[in-house]
Design brief:
Radius of gyration: 17 Å
Strand order of the largest sheet: 1-2
Largest sheet: 2 strands, antiparallel
CATH topology: hpI Integrase, Chain A
Number of domains: 1
Strand content: under 5%
Number of strands: 2
CATH class: Mainly Alpha
Shape: globular
CATH architecture: Orthogonal Bundle
Structural class: mainly alpha
CATH superfamily: Intergrase catalytic core
Order of helices and strands: HHHHEEHHHHHH
Oligomer: single chain
Length: 186
């Protein structure tokens, strides 16, 4: 099964609200993924000090080294994500040295545990073909649409080698291609 992006904003909102109602930690992981396009393996080891300075003010950028590519990535966190982060750290008794997504066993949450929780929530909400990679794909899909189809920038952000790889990755299917043909009427 190929996981897909979430193409309906209402489903994104429902899934976030459902997760937030059961465990704000997983809601924030979800919000983080759909607002940054990072892989889950790059989200879970983030510490509070990666995002906040000593005065608990946001750093200008979140800078990480991607696990898969070993490339450095700088991300300017958007206002939506910043609001969620502030609310979360205030409610969780987190120090700067703590992982944001702490495990009860110490360290940070595992990918498989996150997958299980998010997949169960997606099933409840009725989101099909969902996996943790859906978060990254959702960011790509919506960025593509909102940026008026700027595939080059998304391709570069994802470190893909061609536009066709990125388009396939973010699930631009025949319906969307058909929609493009109906937009232009010369």
């Amino acid at each position: 099964m190929t996981v897909e992006p979430i193409r309906e904003k209402a489903k994104i909102k429902q899934l976030y609200q459902y997760l937030n109602g059961s465990d704000p930690k997983y809601a924030l992981i979800f919000k983080f993924g759909i607002n940054t396009g990072l892989r889950i393996s790059d989200i879970i080891p983030i510490k509070a000090k990666d995002i906040f300075n000593e005065k608990w003010e946001f750093r200008e950028y979140l800078t990480i080294k991607e696990k898969k590519t070993l490339k450095e990535k700088k991300i300017k966190l958007n206002d939506t994500l910043r609001k969620c982060l502030l609310k979360y750290v205030k409610s969780q008794d987190i120090t700067l040295d703590d992982y944001l997504f702490r495990s009860q066993k110490g360290g940070y949450l595992g990918r498989i545990q996150i997958y299980r929780v998010l997949k169960d929530a997606a099933n409840v909400i009725g989101v099909e073909n969902f996996g943790t990679h859906s978060l990254r794909k959702t960011w790509g899909y919506w960025t593509y649409k909102i940026s008026k189809y700027n595939i080059g920038l998304i391709m570069d952000t994802f470190n893909h080698s061609s536009p066709s790889i990125t388009l396939r990755y973010i699930g631009i299917n025949q319906d969307q291609k058909d929609e493009l043909y109906s937009i232009v009427q010369l």
